[in-house]
Amino acid sequence: MSALNNQLKEIQRRVESVPGTAVASELESNAKALLQQPENAALHFGVGLLYARVGDFGSSAKMLNIALNLTGNNETVLGALAYLYASQVGDHKIALTYLKKLHKLDRKKVSTVLLMAHSLLQLKKPDDAIAILRKTRTDAPHQIQLNFLVAQAHIQREEISEAKAIIDTLKQGSNSTAEPMVEILEKQIELATTN
Question: DSSP letter at 22?
Answer without folding.
Answer: G
